[in-house]
Automatic annotation (TrEMBL):
This is Putative ABC transporter ATP-binding protein. It is found in: Cell membrane. The chain crosses the membrane at residues 29-50, 70-93, 150-167. Residues 345-577 form the ABC transporter domain. GO terms for cellular component: plasma membrane. It comes from Corynebacterium glaucum. One of its GO terms (molecular function) is ABC-type oligopeptide transporter activity. Residues 30-314 form the ABC transmembrane type-1 domain. It is a multi-pass membrane protein. Keywords: ATP-binding, Membrane, Nucleotide-binding, Transmembrane, Transmembrane helix.
Length: 583
């Protein structure tokens, strides 16, 4: 389920909204129209003056050289003035367009950061990454490359029509006859090209998704010797990009052939009309020379439009994909006036499904302030889904998820952060100083508070850092070991101080080189707080006030550690197997 692609009306609405945010955008636009129009008309003076050179040479006379020099000076002045006006016009247009792109890029990032986690998972991170990077870059590139060419072509064509009519109204017949042919050619192109370019962009997103999956799952691929299969899948998606790209460019090539035929017809018609105009004495040879030079100049803007249509359609496809994300951003939930955080949580008759299959069914439990609830069971039993529902990352299909007697979906971001926090096995270390990474949880924390948080979770490696809190960590600095990264994540939760902590296998690394270190850190973080722990290590479950044993999305047993052992059911079997394996 990818993110939607915006319709034409949605794109127009978003573009209009972006332009309305730019100060004096309307005034700059119309100023650029005036300046570019004058510049285009000035450029028409060049072929007209060059045509007069022919008349001067044919007429001869003692002052022929002087007259030619004056005409040459006029051509130079017209060219310089036209170029200067075009530069000013393009600058005015570019300031509006680039600011609009900048605002759109910011909206794209802002929307992506506020999207619900489940929405990103359903669409695939590759789709969002492609829209945030490839499509934004493609749009920016297409605007910077095509805006001057398309704008120049439009104004040159308008000025050409005016100049031809000024020479002889009969010349207006040529663009009038060519106009419908151009229109049909463009219409045929635009009928098929946008869909083909959209398919190309979609296949690029699929390629990005497969590459991301292969990179993230590299260790698994190595373990099962599936590198060749992963490479084959990436190759298939890459060839799909090539095929869609070829189909998109083939449409442009056919249109270009049609344009060449139309231009040949215009030249033939212009030559025939010029012949009869000179023969009838209506125009001089110099005047028809200027007219034919103007007609020949039509080729340049029209071919410019054709060449840029390729980029324009690619850019429009990218724009539609970007607007598809930002046009209807998720509504920010306002504060609902929830009571002060107390650490109570309840799942009441909760059902949730992925597609047609129920992931969890009829889940009920209460979490009282300061209590610890452990969820145990095999992989795929629904434990992580319960944690996601409790954190508000998923919305139940049936039932209620309450935090402090308030539906979790009704809580605003600030209200939810004050009440609960989710720590998973997969944590992220942001690039920057260690201080910046920690103050994500508490921006106004002092250095003493940050150091104390690290000490509380047992991050004694911090003491060996020569730069202390100024140490650069993350992808561009010191690479933290998995246990260190998890301790950093737990220190952030400790600083955040939520009423409820949800730990989704957050201490899984405790079974490796840092055995026991994360267990101690987890005890510190959950001490004095309500907590829900997805326990992969059953000694964690043994410390809980309530244990829920899950299987196939249902709670099949519940009770304390001692009660479940006496029951002799599923939990007792798991405990026996785990104890035997640990021994």
């Amino acid at each position: 389920m990818r993110f939607p692609t915006a319709t034409g009306s949605e794109v127009r609405q978003e573009v209009s909204r972006q332009l309305s945010r730019i100060p004096q955008a309307r005034g700059r636009f119309w100023a650029s129209v005036v300046v570019l129009s004058i510049g285009a008309l000035g450029s028409m003076a060049v072929p007209i003056l060059l045509g007069r050179v022919v008349d001067v040479v044919l007429a001869g006379g003692a002052d022929m050289v002087t007259r030619i020099l004056w005409i040459g000076a006029g051509v130079s002045i017209a060219a310089v003035v036209s170029a200067g006006l075009n530069a000013v016009g393009f600058y005015l247009l570019s300031t509006v367009a680039e600011r609009a792109i900048g605002n759109l890029r910011e909206d794209m990032v802002d929307t992506a950061l506020h999207l619900p986690t489940h929405r990103v998972e359903e669409a695939g991170s590759g789709d969002l990454l492609s829209r945030s990077t490839d499509d934004v870059a493609e749009l920016s590139s297409s605007i910077s490359q095509t805006l001057p060419d398309v704008t120049s072509a439009i104004f040159v064509l308008g000025a050409t029509a005016i100049a031809l009519i000024g020479l002889d109204p009969y010349y207006a017949v040529i663009p009038l006859l060519a106009g419908p042919a151009y229109f049909l050619s463009f219409r045929q192109y635009l009928k098929s090209a946008p869909e083909r370019y959209a398919n190309e962009r979609a296949s690029m997103a699929e390629r990005a998704r497969r590459m991301l999956e292969s990179i993230h799952g590299l260790e698994t691929l190595h373990a099962f010797s599936r590198e060749d299969r992963a490479q084959e899948r990436i190759g298939e998606s890459s060839w799909r990009v090539v095929g869609n790209g070829y189909r998109a460019r083939r449409t442009m090539m056919v249109t270009q052939v049609q344009m060449t035929i139309i231009e040949a017809g215009m030249l033939i018609a212009g030559l025939v009309m010029s012949y009869f105009a000179v023969r009838g004495g209506q125009l001089t040879i110099g005047q028809v020379t200027g007219a034919m030079m103007i007609i020949i100049r039509i080729r340049r803007p029209m071919m410019g439009i054709i060449h840029t249509l390729d980029t324009v359609n690619s850019g429009y496809a990218s724009l539609a994909r970007i607007v598809g994300v930002v046009h209807n951003p998720p509504a920010r939930v306002p504060d609902c006036g929830a009571p002060a955080p107390a650490g109570r949580a309840e799942l009441r008759d909760v059902w949730f499904r992925y597609g047609d299959d129920w992931a969890v069914r009829d889940i009920n439990f209460n979490l009282q302030p300061g209590e610890k609830v452990a969820l145990v069971g095999a992989s795929g039993a629904g434990k992580s889904t319960v944690a996601a529902l409790l954190a508000g990352l998923r919305v139940p299909d049936e039932g209620l998820v309450l935090i402090d007697d308030t539906p979790v979906t009704a809580l605003s971001d600030s209200e939810r952060v004050a009440r609960l926090a989710l720590v998973s096995q997969e944590v992220h270390v942001f690039s920057g100083t260690l201080r910046e990474d920690l103050t994500i949880a508490k921006p106004n924390a002092t250095d003493a508070e940050l150091e104390q948080a690290l000490a509380d979770v047992g991050a004694d490696w911090f003491e060996t850092l020569s730069d202390g809190l100024n140490t650069i960590v993350g992808s561009r600095g010191m690479r933290l070991e998995p246990v260190q990264a998890q301790q950093l994540a737990l220190a952030r939760i400790h600083l955040l101080d939520p009423a409820i902590v949800l730990m989704d296998e957050a201490t899984a690394e405790a079974g490796s080189a840092g055995a026991g270190a994360l267990e101690d850190a987890a005890r510190v973080v959950t001490s004095g707080r309500s907590s829900v722990v997805i326990a992969h290590r059953l000694d964690q479950a043994a410390e809980a006030d309530l244990i829920l044993v899950m299987d196939a999305g249902e709670v099949v047993e519940r009770g304390t550690h001692a009660e479940l052992l006496d029951l002799g059911g599923r939990y007792a079997q798991l405990w026996t197997a785990w104890s035997r394996g640990r021994a």
